[in-house]
Specification:
The chain is of the alpha/beta class. The chain contains 11 helices and 12 strands. Strand 1, helix 1 and strand 2 form a beta-alpha-beta unit. The structure holds NADP nicotinamide-adenine-dinucleotide phosphate. The site of NADP nicotinamide-adenine-dinucleotide phosphate has 26 residues, from helix 6 and helix 10.
Length: 271
C-alpha cells in the first residue's frame, strides 16, 4: 500500500460537505499523515472511479447524495446494516474487496445518547435519511412511526420496515426525528417549518433530533429548545457517523471533540 493513505467523500455535488474539514481535524489529532479529499463524481462515473480508488492509495470513502444506493451495489460485501437499509455511506477497501457499511444509522443512535427502547419515536420524512433513521430506531427497540409529506411514500416505507404510518405528525411521540429537507434553507421561519412538517398544533416532544444542519440554529431546534425538549442537532449526527467511519478505516478511537469543533466552526456552507 502506498505511504500517503487517502480517504474522501464521494458525492455530486460535494463542495458543501463538512466531512473533509472534520476528518482532517481528526487525522491531525490522531497524528496520522493521511489526507481526506472531496471526490465530486457524476453518477455515470461513480462505480468505475470507486473501483480504481484502492490502487490510488485510498483506504476508504464516505458516500453521500446521490450515490448511497450505488455504493451498496458496487460493494463486494455489505454489512447486515447496509444491506437492511439498502444504502451505504462508508466504503472500505480491503484485500477481500470493497466492504460497504452504513454508519448513518448507528450514528443517529450514538448522537441520541439515551436509550430509546420502548419509547415512541416519529420519523418525519421517508427519503434516504428517513429510511436509515426509522430502521435505526426500530433496531434500537423504539416504537417507530413515519410521517411523510407525500403519504404514499411514507406508507410504502412503513409497510416495508413493518413500522407505523402516522397520518398526523403532531401528537404523542417521545422522540421526533426530522429527516426531511425542511430547514435546509437557513432563513425559513419557525411557523413555516412547523406548518410544512405538520407540527404547528403540537407540543414539542421530549427529544427532538434535526438531521438538517445549518450555520445557525434551525427553526425546528429553536422551537424545541424553547419548549424544553432535549435537542440533538444535525451536526452531532454528522460527527457520530463520521467517527464510526473513521474508526472502521483506522482502527483508532475517533477524537470526537476535535471532530465536533471542526464541523461546527470549520465550514462556511450550510449543508
Ligand atoms: P431525500 O431522499 O431527498 O428526502 C427528502 C425528504 O424531505 C422527503 O421525505 C420529502 O418528502 C421531504 N421534504 C422535502 N421538502 C419538504 C417540504 N417542503 N415539506 C415537507 N417535507 C419535505 O433526502 P435525504 O437524503 O433523505 O435527506 C433529508 C435531509 O437529511 C437533508 O436535509 C439532509 O441534509 C439531511 N441529512 C443529514 C445527515 C446528517 O448526518 N446530519 C445525514 C443524511 C441526511 P416527499 O416524499 O413528500 O418529497
Amino acid at each position: 500500500m502506498p505511504d500517503a493513505r487517502l480517504l474522501g467523500v464521494a458525492g455530486f455535488p460535494v463542495g458543501h460537505s463538512r466531512s473533509p474539514v472534520m476528518h482532517a481535524a481528526a487525522l491531525r489529532e490522531l497524528g496520522l499523515p493521511w489526507r481526506y479529499l472531496k471526490l465530486p463524481l457524476p453518477p455515470e462515473l461513480f462505480a468505475e472511479t470507486v473501483r480504481a480508488l484502492p490502487a490510488a492509495g485510498y483506504v476508504g470513502v464516505n458516500v453521500t447524495v446521490p450515490h448511497k444506493e450505488a455504493a451498496l451495489e458496487v460493494a463486494d460485501s455489505p454489512t447486515p446494516t447496509a444491506g437492511a437499509i439498502g444504502a451505504a455511506n462508508t466504503l472500505t477497501f480491503t484485500e477481500h474487496g470493497i466492504e460497504a457499511d452504513n454508519t448513518d444509522a448507528p450514528g443517529l443512535i450514538a448522537a441520541l445518547g439515551e436509550p430509546v427502547a420502548g419509547r415512541r419515536a416519529l420519523v418525519l420524512g421517508a427519503g434516504g435519511a428517513g429510511r436509515a433513521a426509522a430502521w435505526a430506531l426500530r433496531e434500537a427497540g423504539a416504537e417507530v412511526s413515519v410521517w411523510n409529506r407525500t403519504p404514499g411514500r411514507g406508507r410504502d416505507l412503513a409497510a416495508e420496515l413493518r413500522i407505523g404510518y402516522a397520518r398526523r405528525a403532531a401528537g404523542a411521540s417521545d422522540v421526533v426525528v426530522n429527516a426531511t429537507s425542511v430547514g435546509l434553507v437557513p432563513d425559513v421561519r419557525e411557523q413555516q417549518a412547523l406548518e410544512a412538517l405538520g407540527l404547528r398544533e403540537g407540543e414539542p416532544p421530549a427529544t427532538l433530533v434535526d438531521l438538517v444542519y445549518s450555520e445557525r440554529e434551525t427553526a425546528l431546534t429553536a422551537w424545541a429548545r424553547q419548549g424544553g425538549s432535549a435537542v440533538v442537532d444535525g451536526l452531532e449526527v454528522l460527527v457520530r457517523q463520521g467517527a464510526l467511519s473513521l474508526e472502521r478505516w483506522t482502527g483508532r478511537r475517533p477524537p470526537l471533540a476535535a471532530m465536533r469543533a471542526a464541523a461546527v466552526h470549520g465550514g462556511l456552507d450550510i449543508r
